[in-house]
Protein 1
Amino acid sequence: MHFHSKREFIRSLQSGHYIVLACICLLTNILPAQSSLLPAKPDAIRVLQLLKVDNLRPRYPDALPSILRELNEKTTANFDASPLVVNSLEDETLSKHTFLYINFDDQPDISLNEGEIQSLRKFLERGGFCYIDAGIKAEFIGANRGHSFANWEVRPEAAAIFEKVFPGKSFRPLSREHEIFRCYYKGLPNGDKLPEAIRDFVENEKWPQGTYSFLGLHLEERLSVLVTPIIAMGWGKDESGNWVSPISFRIRENAEDARLQAASYTGSKFDASREDGLRDVIYSQIGQLPAWVEEPNGRWRIFRYYSGKEISDYANSFYTQLGVNIFVHALSN
Amino acid sequence: MTKFYCVYIFLFIISCFSLPAQQSGGAVPQGIPEEVRRAIEQARLRELGVSQGNPVTSPSPPVPVITPFRSPGVPGTPSTSPSSLNETLLQAAKDLKSPDENLRVSSAKLLGKYQVSQAGKLLLSVLGDKSIKVRRAAVRSLFENMAFRDRAGAEKLLSMLGDEDVEVRREISKAIPILRSRLSISTTVTRIINGRPVMTSVPYRLSSVMAETVTKALGDEDGIVRQNVLKYYTYLNLPFSAAMLEKCLADPDRGVVDTAMSRIRIVPRTPGIIERLTTIAGSEDPGLRRKLVSSLRGIREPEIQSIQTKLATDIDPYVRIMAAVSLVGLGQPVPAGTIQGVKDFLMRVDSANTQIMSLFYSISDFGEPHAREIYTLLTGHTNSSLRRSAWQRVLNYDNGWNTPSIWTPVLEDTDKRVRENVIGTVQGNLVPVPMDYLEKLIESEFPDVRALAGMLLARHKAEIVSEWMFDLLIDEEAQVRRAILQTAYNIRVDGWQKLLQKSLGDGDPSIQRTAAYGLLGNLGNSEPILRRFVSENPGNPIAIEISRELARRTIIRKSTPRQN
């Protein structure tokens, strides 16, 4: 099957090849589970995963296989659901593949030697795509928490690597209108079950129109490296099709400005970068999750934490949508 | 004139004393600009290693300063709180009584940030507020700060399972495990036995009113509340009946049905329940069928076995195989074609995800001959994780770890992690490995295997080691040379001392260190060799280390009384 343009390809993924889709629908109805367990086809695309340390157990072991199965089930793409793990980017397999996945929450202290830097540069220059999950992490989250927060800066460890790979090139925020946010899924999952306060915040501020804080590094206008806050935590499913990771929401809620300004706190203050380039100041309490935030417009809001199945399911669905969009976009570009 | 000189000398002496005092710690001259003065003060404090406090020397009035805590890995900027905790709590208490709903809500949210009992008491006091928003905020805050530590508070919260607001009910139902831990506090009774008071603990029982509230919540209009209550119902020591399970298995909410299946084992399987389970076995939802097959595993009842027999022909290979495994575990013969089905299925998959590994571990239920056959086949799988796990199983049969004919083939695996698994275990074997096998290991293309050969040679006599060690001593990989060097001095092969002396000049520091510690282990005979190396290699890091060790060990040796 050949595609003359990426639009054509995306159309085919979405609605163009009706017969193929009809077959998929039929198969998913007749053999709903088999599709997720069948072995990969010989020509399936293999995703490389970098795990620098031997025997390192990833933080989200079911994540990548689950999203690849999801892609196979929901689109006409053909991925091998088993990622190929490499310990070094000098591994010769890098030259035979086009997708590289690195999760900084698995291994925050990734350092690449000169050979790996060169190898990564070649990989990207010849059209490879590198997705760095958890490549954005606000300082206040700390090293051990797997929280996703829309900071608008690449974490320093990742930035340092790409400064060596492409000196002088920097990551740019992807606009909310970017094709990556709507190349397969558009908008947000159905949030009817969400509590009202959460739904408003999520739809209007956290993930407006199904977008998130994505930063990219472009080579000849092609998105070659994508960096996002942790998303893989919302991909994993168990054998019954249930989500593996429970996810909570951090919501900014209104509270009396004067009371927050005057309130006692015991922890540190942190800066976080906003989309508009301004900074939030985040206040914390000892041993607790971040407490409240002073926004650049002078408004103060309190962080509230919500958990529960409906919240977790919603977040998992959205992160899975984002994951599908990322891979489909990379495939079509 | 003499008086003039006396005054001059007096002033000179005074100035001599005052100048150093200024330089070492006195106040910075006030005549210079404020910024400069502060900078000098900071620099001086830094130099003295004093933590930077208020640079102004005049005492500052006491302010409610809370020292910021900076845990490792969480930096941030330390800063000063604008008020004390007491001041904040007092203000919050006032706000909670305000007629302004927004102020009450705001106060309830803020109190969630303080893990002190006063905050908990204040929040518990507004659980009956007429405003839904206040109640929601208070409940959420209480589960955030966990500042309710007694049973009364937990009971008050649990009773809110009957609240009119669904969000409040969801919060409470989700937090039943937390409430349970508070409810079981202080459940001791004192009895007089033989005239003595004896304290014993009794399980907590909910009051009948509370039990009724919880049971009623099992039929809540909201599916999430129903699911949560079902999941945690038994935490509250409430009896769960077959009739309840039957109702839950027919629930329209998938989540409730999924949770209900986890409860199959704790109630008798009534005809009604069997009927529900049969319906689920025919469900179009593969997730439910997979959950069902896992939940039924090991139940020895004809009705359940007939459901499993049906599942053994399911279109989903996972369900089919798990059902067959379960039937075999119950003593039924292996259905025809099952073993081949498992083999085909597992050999075709190319991942070791949770589903595959669950199935992999269940294979043991087929019994040794079949399981062994399947695991042996899987040692040739293309997926290295599956190969590794399969080898572990195979080697456990017939004490395979001690049988070189069984474990040596693993060392030909191209995946290092598969080999490591075996190497880690067999290097502890005390039985000598026959030389036929060792010879193959010495010739291996993998350095970790050659290093293992070097280590395993130590189980043989010195003459045999001398005969075979040469290839390993000139190996290009340091780990191999290190292993054989250790073996050479551990069993004292002929000329081991010369060998180690020569290895002190190896280009690899790890070999040098191994040789040095080998010689240090026989200090009585090797001291001159080591001292010569130290004197000939001044500045060499290993020579420095040897020198330090020599000094330490010589002192100990001299101070230890000799025994005859």
Protein 2
Amino acid sequence: MSKSVISNETELSILKDITFDVVAGETVAIVGTSGAGKSTLMALLAGLDIVSSGEIELLGQPLSQLNDEQRAQIRSESIGFVFQSFLLIPSLSAVENVTLPAILRGEGEDIEKAKQLLASVGLTGRETHLPAQLSGGEQQRVALARAFMTQPKILFADEPTGNLDEHTAENIIELLFEMNRDHGTTLVLITHDTNLAKRCDRTLSIHAGQLQEV
Amino acid sequence: MDKHKMASGRKMVIRWSWREIWQGQLWPVMAALTLIIACVVALSALAIRVEKVMTDHGRSMIAADLVFSSANPTPELILTEAEQLGLTKSEQIRFQTMAFSDSSMQLVSVKAVQSSYPLRGELILIGSNAVSKGSLQPGELWIAERLFSLLGIKIGDQLAIGDLTLKVSGKIASEPELTYNPFRTMPSVFIHQADLGKTGAVQLGSRVQYRTFFKGDDSTLKLLQKVHPLQTGERWISEGNQGRTADLIIKAKQYLSLTILMVILMAAVTLVLTCQHYADSRTNTVAMLKSMGAGRRWLRQWLLSQVGLMFVAAIVLGSLIGLGLEALLRLPLAGILPDQLPGYGWQPFVFGSAVALLIGLPALGIPLIRLLDTSAIAVLQAQTVKPSKKGLWLIAAPAIAFLLIYGANTLVWMVFGGLIALFVVLASASYVLLHLLSKAKWGPAMSLALSRIKRSAKSSMMQLAALSGSLMLVAVIWLVRTDLLSDWQETLPADAPNVFAINIAPTEQQAYLKQLDDNQIQRSSAYPIIRGRLTEINGENAKRSADNGNDHINALHRELNFTWVTELPDDNPVVAGQWTDQKGVSIEQSLAADLGIKIGDKLGFMVNGQAFSVPVNSIREVEWQSMKPNFYLIFTPDVVKELPATWLVSFRINDQKLPFLNQLGRNYPTVSLLDLRSMGGKLQTILGQITWSLTVLAGVGVLSGLLLIFTLLRLSLNQRQREITLYRTLGASRKRISQTLWSEYGVMAIAAGFVAVAGAELIVFSLLKWGFKLDPSLHPLMWFTLPFLALLVVFASLMSVIKGLLKPLK
């Protein structure tokens, strides 16, 4: 598949004829320099955007043939996200943030499960705290717990440690891999940190819009 | 799926929405909505009360809610209908006759009333031993105070009214139904209707006026007026068509609705900007929720629950604040509002909520519909999207409501048209001005400020437009108030004449005026009075010529007071033709219009059986409300000078000169003195009340306008946070940034101030000229005040946020 955008009336090719497969249960790192197209690739894989040509099949579904709502449905049922800037809702407490994906699925607020997940990321006793009352590392733990709330089949993590100090980052990564293992989730990790990438089963490198297996 | 869990999910969304209002960015929107509701509730509640009070005043002057007046007994149809409608009624018959005491006689105006009179207003009768009462019984006779001296009688003496002789029960201290026409004010006498027959005064062909007073609901009174088509000599009298107060009430009402509209307009601007700001701040959240799989339907419900909750909260809070505000507004009016305040019902709350909903619908709807279109990918990469035209149809809601409510209101269209035209012209003018300013040589701070304004032309112009628009509305509210009041003060100055002397014999005239002048009494010119009729227009019978639908013209059915002068009075400006030295008559413009009289038309008159005709030389404007001698017809001296006349003069008496007035009455017993002091006082009181009400309302309008501007500016300054942090990071000193901000906002304030004052002048000019029908004038002081005020508000807003904006970098 390929992706290009129109910028200042000229066509800019971001991803050029990329082909690859990710098998269920695999952990895959996508590495590359800033602007290489890592985030664009992740957006396409998660169905946040659509390809310019070619096709992406997500859990057996051809994404370009689905409309916005259908792609949202897949995300709510099978996909979890962890973002670089955590993206917690400031007016919701830690436990409420964790239950959010379940509410988006129309499932209701499963407080017990959310509390268990918070406990599994080491935040027992912080359930009612608002994001502003938590440190960066703690906020990312909440985001991790949130990502696993709906038992996703695939977890997309976009530079999950980009906003954290080294020590905290290491803790988060440990947690991420541990939870991934425990829940049997497929992990697609975007990072520019090659050491972090090495912990995944496979590493794909993007350069000038081309993808290479490392 | 587990129903319990689903319900808990919905509860969580509601909880979230509630917190979004208080912790999220939704509170400025809610504050703007609350402000709109509070202002509309307070102003309309006060308007309803003030209007009711003014209406009550008007009605107390006509002794009822509605009066039917006729030369014949009130038609049975009206009376039975009134009974069926459950209206309270009271009947009066009035006529003029001679009253005879043992030693003297006097022409009086007799009012034969029922015990239920008056249905409104105050009748105070003071009997022997100063016992006062408010209604009269059969067998009683109450007379105006001056009749005691004119007839040389005292309480308990006998007085004959026609064939009826009664003992005088006491004096009339206060009565409703006062009239300002000195020629028609004869001393009053009250008797009970049960005694009317015994006077023998009312017979076939005698000149009698029948009045029936009604009291009841406005809607019922309207129904009553529809049952009987008016015949010649019949009319309905209400507070809206009677006398001086009617004009005051109508203009004050117009002003009230204008003020409310302006406050709404200003708040709407703020609401639109805060809503836009809110939607912008929520882009990331919506993108994130979409990335997590939220569908449009879910997001729509989520936003709706937030907005719905916010509206409910704003309506409750706004109504409460509105109530408090109304109570606060009433404080300065405490002395003049009645103790038993009239209620205002649900109307202000419904009106306030409806206004907020109608404005909120497009203001929030359009940015929120666009927010729903946020692409999920925005969670990873900032997107630049062209604003879509989706949701623009929502503007139709307030537009249609506006058309329905104000469609026929020319005043409102004037303001609206003025606003649009002005923005086109003045926004470009200020843009050019800024452009020219930037060409001159300035210090670094000013240069940076000017270049920023120029760089972000669109947003700067938006801000300039919002600022100057709000300032302009503030200025309009204040200026219209000032001009209205000064017009009223002019027509009814505090030193207006309050006593009329009529029937001065020509032989006494010089001596009489000398006595006034010797005592330093402020007086009008003296006018000769000749009573006669207007009989012909261009050789044709005036009444016949009036048959063309002009039969109702009162002036043709009665004797008029003519006068002659060498020069027309100063306050009678000629609107057509020219005053001549001889062989001419000048006619008042409304009478001329009613009779279709033009310059050069020959009018025929009859005075003391003597007929003569004379051409119209001029048409004059007469201020009937001024308490000065006014005439429909003024002749050149040669035409009527030789006819027998008595003289009239008006003057002002204050309390210290009261003994002189009594002395004057004794020295000239044949001269009738009309003491209008209590009536003039009443009028002054009403004027005082209306002045206060309008000033308070204008004050609230101005204050809320300034508050809104303040909020707006703070919002705009807070949006600059990121840019300022960037400047700081790049090494700009706090002083430099602070100077740049002061310069930028200072330039904008002055530009907006001038744009606003120019716009306000234009709008006030049109409003006064075509809306309130007054003479407009320029307001030079405003050209200094408004830019200064703009600077003050801008600086106050800047002061309140600058510390936060310039906080040290982390």
